[in-house]
TrEMBL record:
UniProt-recorded name of the protein: Cytosine/adenosine deaminase
Record carries keyword Cytoplasm: no
SUPFAM superfamilies, A to Z: Composite domain of metallo-dependent hydrolases, Metallo-dependent hydrolases
GO MF annotation: an example: hydrolase activity, acting on carbon-nitrogen (but not peptide) bonds
Family assignment from sequence similarity: Belongs to the metallo-dependent hydrolases superfamily. ATZ/TRZ family.
Residue ranges of domain Amidohydrolase-related in the record: 73-437
Keywords, comma-separated and alphabetical: Hydrolase
Entry superkingdom: Bacteria
InterPro entries (alphabetical): Amidohydro-rel, Metal-dep_hydrolase_composite, Metal_Hydrolase, MTA/SAH_deaminase
Species for this entry: Acinetobacter marinus
Gene3D superfamilies given in the database record: Metal-dependent hydrolases, Urease, subunit C, domain 1
Length: 491
């Protein structure tokens, strides 16, 4: 089943797009590979939301808005391929702060999941989306798994609505579980697993109501059981893949975040986690997995052969002590690479500049840690060649767009949709840079966002988002955290 986008379905912002000329950029990074990763020109013309010309000394046309990008660097807008937005109100939660994955799940997200109502769920989504938006992110894939029988609110409706209000592209990875595991045994009966038929019926509803096929869609729906090993039966997992492909949608789940996945798959199914997924049709170009930290060489080979993708989440994997995914080996094998911030309950810096900075450093650290000392000639083989700034930008832009099937996005080149971030590097952390282009990734922190364009429309200007009061948002967040804490204590 393939849905067709009609005028009624179209994101309202697509109908109100300015023609824009970006002038005098210090640097333009394209999201492409090798020699094409940087454009030598300084100007970008955007017409009807599409990049139509890149060059020097372009003259403004009538009715064309000019953005002066002097001393600024220009990137494709980031594409975040894995998040849990509800966790934006669970940052630094003390019970889970120093726990590894499984006890952290029990201590924080599962303990608080029933405390969310429509209002604080909406607030959490808004906070997470704004945090991403202000880092230059235009597209968010949220793995939303807060589902149980007779839920009192529709999380999908809230998520799509909040993203649309901010002018962002939103991909709903509809999570859920049809069976529970031990760490969920203490949950109230009301929060228990869904029935498989009900889960699939809701997938049909969501696809019909929200999913757009366009390669620059503002709304997508993805089949995303919470975990491949724990959340459904093997037969249901295979059936979910069949249904997803009949619906014409992509597939996403968590896999191999810790060594526990390998132990579990071997004990329950006598095979590795990736082999298990392959046996149940959960690999391929239309599938991407979050994490993939603990893999055997044969699993990497299988993922590459099938062109399966990864959402690399280095900060969350570090926060939980899970390890560092071998992105170098995965990409060499043919795996599609993207970057996700994961939920803020395990990553208190859930923005794409922080995430890409971590990816850049940790891939180098991983390779260096595994390197063999070579004392001949005083040489030591380190890992500084593991990932360049340009690699990380490509993973976080074009890589994510490709994994989501949004092939019109993620690159700055003629014919691509104008999702563009313009950074003004006017903070002391950038002073002294020999190459301004690397600043937003290399220097960490959040750069001053001169403008963020989504489909050619300016949605952030000079760090400001229309109709967003950050002081009021901070107060609401403080009150919501108190409410959630009280509800958990009462429960």
């Amino acid at each position: 089943m393939n849905t067709t986008t009609t005028a009624h379905d179209m994101h309202a912002d697509e109908m109100h797009v300015e023609n824009v000329l970006i002038k005098n950029a210090n640097s333009i990074l394209t999201g492409m590979h090798g020699a094409q990763a940087r454009h030598q020109a300084s100007d970008i013309r955007i017409s009807a939301g599409v990049i139509t010309e890149i060059g020097d000394d372009l003259e403004a046309l009538p009715h064309e808005r000019v953005i002066n990008a002097r001393d600024c660097v220009v990137y494709p807008a980031w594409v975040n391929t894995h998040h849990h937005l509800f966790q934006s109100l669970l940052k630094g939660e003390p019970w889970g702060l120093n726990q590894s994955l499984t006890p952290w799940l029990a201590a924080t997200p599962y303990r608080f999941r029933g405390a969310f109502d429509a209002d604080n769920f909406r607030l959490a989504a808004r906070i997470g989306l704004i945090e991403l938006l202000r880092s230059g992110c235009a597209t968010v894939a949220d793995h939303h798994y807060l589902y149980w029988p007779d839920m009192p609110f529709d999380g999908a409706e809230i998520l799509f609505d909040e993203a649309q209000r901010l002018g962002m592209r939103f991909v709903l990875c509809r999570g859920g579980a049809t069976q529970t595991r031990g760490l969920e045994a203490e949950l109230p009966q009301a929060l228990r697993a869904e029935k498989f038929d009900a889960y699939m019926a809701d997938m049909q509803r969501l696809v019909k109501h929200y999913h757009q096929d366009s390669a620059h869609a503002y709304q997508r729906v993805v089949m995303a059981p919470t975990t491949a090993l724990h959340s459904t039966s093997p037969a249901e997992l295979k059936e979910s893949a069949k249904i997803a492909r009949e619906l014409g949608i992509r597939m996403h789940t968590h896999l191999s975040e810790t060594v526990d996945y390998l132990d579990c798959a071997q004990a329950k199914f006598g095979m590795t986690p990736v082999q298990f997924c392959a046996e149940h049709d959960w690999v391929g170009e239309d599938v991407w997995m979050a994490h993939l930290v603990k893999l055997l060489p044969e699993e990497i080979q299988l993922l590459g052969q099938t062109r399966t993708g990864i959402a690399h989440c280095p900060q969350s994997n570090g926060r939980l002590g899970s390890g560092i995914a071998d992105i170098v080996a995965l990409e060499r094998a043919g795996v599609q690479i993207s970057i996700g911030v994961d939920g803020a309950a395990s990553n208190e810096a859930a923005d794409m500049q922080s995430e890409t900075h971590a990816a850049w450093l940790l891939q180098r650290a991983r390779k260096g840690m595994l390197a063999t000392p070579q004392y001949a000639g005083g040489q030591f083989e380190g890992g500084a060649d593991a990932a360049s700034i340009e690699d990380v930008i490509r993973w976080g832009t074009a890589g994510g767009a490709g994994i989501l099937g949004l092939d019109d996005l993620g690159q700055i080149e003629v014919g691509k949709v104008a999702d563009i971030a313009i950074y003004a590097l006017d903070d002391p952390r950038y002073f002294g840079l020999h190459d301004m282009a690397i600043g937003p990734v290399a220097c960490a922190g959040r750069a001053h966002l001169k403008a963020l364009l989504v489909g050619g429309r300016v949605v952030v200007e000079d760090d400001q988002i229309p109709n967003v009061d950050l002081k009021a948002l901070a107060f609401e967040a403080q009150q919501a955290v108190k409410t959630l804490q009280q509800r958990v204590l009462v429960a």
